[in-house]
Amino acid sequence: MAQLITILILVFSAWWFYRRFVSDARKLAEKSRRAEKERQTGAIGTLVKDPVTGEYRLKRDEE
Predict the structure, then answer these.
(1) Which residues pair with 47 in a beta bridge?
(2) 3-class DSSP state for residue 15?
(3) Which of 18, 43, 50, 53 could covalently link to 38 via disulfide, CB atoms 3.0 to 4.6 Å apart?
(4) Cα–Cα distance between 25 and 28 in angstroms, integer?
């Protein structure tokens, strides 16, 4: 029974690390793509509209 629990913990941990790796890779690819597009167009940053105030602001890295 202890072996089964250990195997389940290892499988769950591997799955969790894989999902985190994929998530981080997607974020990095999107950030790289955005930076490349800004470089090509000569833009300083990406603007996003605030739905509450209606004002535009620079997009943050965590968005």
Answers:
(1) 58
(2) helix
(3) 43
(4) 5
